[in-house]
Each structure stands twice: as structure tokens, then as C-alpha cells.
């Protein structure tokens, strides 16, 4: 007890044998070994009756000069001091034993559990998705708790329940690293699948102008839904019961990354679309422009402007049609006109014609 309690000042390094003499003995079984029991009992009796015995109990050094009729009161006063001393409040022996044994059992079981789940760490940290991770770690945790329950449930009930909860938290903490790592890899895979799926959808629907026929948003929506379903399905599969694990943050991050990819790809496709329309515009205006410039007349510039406006309106109409079909971009007419006004002219006639074009 002296080793377990808070010791008074000055005797912090004391041990129990500094204050108590302790002897231990055992007796043979009275029914199975009656003769040996009687012999051992007689030997034990000597400790109380024979003063010359080396293990004599009532040594003079123990005498406190307390009269026999005053001993009950003396013992009572000693016990009152023990009861009132809060430093001596210790768990019961049953609880102490339960704590020790439960800790010991948990340590052994946790070691086996760690050995079972550690092989998954390397592939997850390497960026791979471990197939069947959810059932595997759930099975490992169930085996851990079953081992602990089998060996520890016979000890003090409250201690057992407390230690079981501690073991469950320790196991969940270990498995949480695998869960988060798997979520990270699932997010990367879902984003990669989205990009590939979107590219395939875009490539399969390229029209004659080198750009998409149909709604870009529809393609994004379909690819986004497939990527999200994959991530959610896989994330649900690795969620364990009796945990507070959530993939909401990772899913939100995935949506943001998908939107970034979609926005970037939309910009690329719009640039391709505009470039394709520019080439079509140049083809539409080059021949009539060259013809008008090679046949000067008083109506030359009026015809040039008329042909230019017709080609420009046709290209602009196609661009607006694309914008309204689900591409969700703004058609900045002034910028497009400026680009098309200058890009279609050759070196010999750009300077001559530009002064007329810019006043459109």
C-alpha cells in the first residue's frame, strides 16, 4: 500500500517493508492430504505459542504498552485515521486486478490487430486504392474486440467496460489514418475519371466546326454525377460503425476540383470554337474582299462592307447559338469583331481596309 499511495513528506522513497513485517504460508488440502495438513497446522501453531520459534508472531518490539482491555479502542482510533486519510483511498483489490489484467489483455490484442492492418499502410501511402479495405479493417477490429471481450469480460464490470471503450478508441484512431488515406486516393481517382470521361464525351461529339454539338453542361453534369457516385459509394464502403468518420469535407473538395477542371476545359473548348469560327470567317471574306479590291469602283467599299458584315453576322450567329446551347459563356461582340476585323486582312490591304472596318 505504501508503494501505491501518496506518501507523507520525508518518506517518499519508503517501501511497505519499512513499516510492516509480513510472512506468508500455505497449508495442504485438508480433505485430500489430511496428514500433511495436520503437520503443517501444528507447525503454524508454533508461531503463536513458542517464543523461541524464529517466526514467532508476538515479538516484544510490537508491544505498544496498550492494556488488553484498551486494545479495541486503540484499534478503532487507528482505523479512524485510515478512513479519514484521503491519501489512502485506493481502488479495491478487485479493481486493481481488473485494471492490470485488462491493460495486459488489451496490449496483446492490440499488437495482433496492428500486425493485421499494417500491410494496408504502404499501398495507401503510395497512392493506391485498396480493394475491400472497409470489410478488412472492420473484420480486424471485430477480432480485436472479440479477443478482448473473451479474456477481459470476467473481470470487474466497470473496469472492463472502461478499458473496452479505451481499446475501441485506440483501434479507431489507428484505422482513421487508413480511412483518410483511402479517401484521398479515392478523390484523386474520381477526379481523374471525371477528366477522362469528360474528354471522351467531348471528343465523341466534335462537330464540323471542330467544337461540340450539344450542351457542354450536359456532358459535365453526366461525368460529374458518375465521379461523385463512385466516390460516395467507395467512401461509404470504408465507413465503420461506432465511429464519427465523415467524408463530407473530401466530397466538397472533390466538387470544387471538378468545377475547376470543367471551367478550364470549357475555356479551352470555347477558344477552339472561336478559332474555328475565325477560320471560317476568313474563308468567307477572303475571296470577295480580294475580288472587290482588285476591281476598284465607286461602290467598292460599300460592297466590301456588305460582304464583311454578312460573313461576320453568320459567324456571330453560330457563336451565339453555341453560347445558348449550354456552354454558358458571354459573347463579347466588340472583342470578337476586333479580332475578326484584323485577322482576315492580308499584309497588302490591311492598312487600307482597317480604317473602314473599325468604324463599324
From TrEMBL:
Transmembrane segments: none annotated. GO terms for cellular component: endoplasmic reticulum. Residues 132-325 form the Sey1/RHD3-like three-helix bundle domain. GO terms for biological process: endoplasmic reticulum membrane fusion. Pfam families: RHD3_GTPase, Sey1_3HB. InterPro entries: RHD3/Sey1, Sey1/RHD3-like_3HB. GO terms for molecular function: GTPase activity. This is RHD3/Sey1.
Amino acid at each position: 500500500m505504501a508503494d501505491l499511495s501518496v506518501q507523507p513528506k520525508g518518506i517518499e522513497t519508503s517501501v511497505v517493508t519499512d513499516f510492516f513485517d509480513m510472512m506468508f504460508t500455505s497449508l495442504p488440502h485438508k480433505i485430500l492430504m489430511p496428514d500433511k495438513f495436520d503437520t503443517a497446522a501444528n507447525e503454524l501453531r508454533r508461531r503463536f505459542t513458542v517464543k523461541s520459534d524464529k517466526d514467532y508472531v508476538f515479538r516484544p518490539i510490537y508491544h505498544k504498552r496498550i492494556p488488553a482491555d484498551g486494545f479495541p479502542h486503540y484499534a478503532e482510533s487507528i482505523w479512524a485515521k485510515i478512513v479519514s486519510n484521503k491519501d489512502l483511498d485506493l481502488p479495491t483489490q478487485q479493481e486493481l486486478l481488473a485494471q492490470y489484467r485488462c491493460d495486459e489483455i488489451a496490449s496483446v490484442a492490440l499488437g495482433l490487430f496492428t500486425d493485421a492492418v499494417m500491410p494496408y499502410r504502404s499501398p495507401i501511402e503510395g497512392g493506391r486504392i485498396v480493394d475491400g479495405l472497409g470489410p478488412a479493417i472492420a473484420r480486424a477490429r471485430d477480432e480485436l474486440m472479440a479477443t478482448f471481450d473473451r479474456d477481459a469480460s470476467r473481470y470487474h464490470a466497470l473496469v472492463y467496460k472502461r478499458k473496452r471503450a479505451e481499446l475501441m478508441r485506440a483501434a479507431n484512431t489507428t484505422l482513421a489514418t487508413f480511412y483518410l488515406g483511402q479517401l484521398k486516393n479515392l478523390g484523386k481517382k474520381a477526379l481523374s475519371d471525371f477528366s477522362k470521361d469528360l474528354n471522351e464525351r467531348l471528343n465523341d461529339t466534335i462537330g464540323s466546326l471542330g467544337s461540340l454539338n450539344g450542351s457542354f453542361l450536359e456532358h459535365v453534369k453526366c461525368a460529374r454525377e458518375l465521379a461523385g457516385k463512385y466516390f460516395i459509394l467507395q467512401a461509404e464502403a470504408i465507413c465503420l460503425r461506432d465511429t464519427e468518420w465523415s467524408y463530407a469535407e473530401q466530397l466538397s473538395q472533390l466538387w470544387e476540383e471538378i468545377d475547376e477542371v470543367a471551367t478550364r476545359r470549357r475555356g479551352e473548348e470555347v477558344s477552339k470554337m472561336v478559332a474555328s469560327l475565325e477560320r471560317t470567317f476568313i474563308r468567307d471574306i477572303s475571296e470577295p474582299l480580294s475580288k472587290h479590291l482588285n476591281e476598284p469602283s465607286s461602290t467598292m467599299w460599300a460592297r466590301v462592307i456588305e460582304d464583311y458584315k454578312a460573313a461576320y453576322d453568320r459567324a456571330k450567329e453560330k457563336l451565339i447559338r453555341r453560347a445558348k446551347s449550354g456552354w454558358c459563356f458571354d459573347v463579347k461582340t466588340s472583342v470578337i469583331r476586333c479580332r475578326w476585323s484584323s485577322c482576315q486582312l492580308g499584309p497588302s490591304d490591311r492598312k487600307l481596309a482597317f480604317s473602314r472596318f473599325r468604324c463599324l
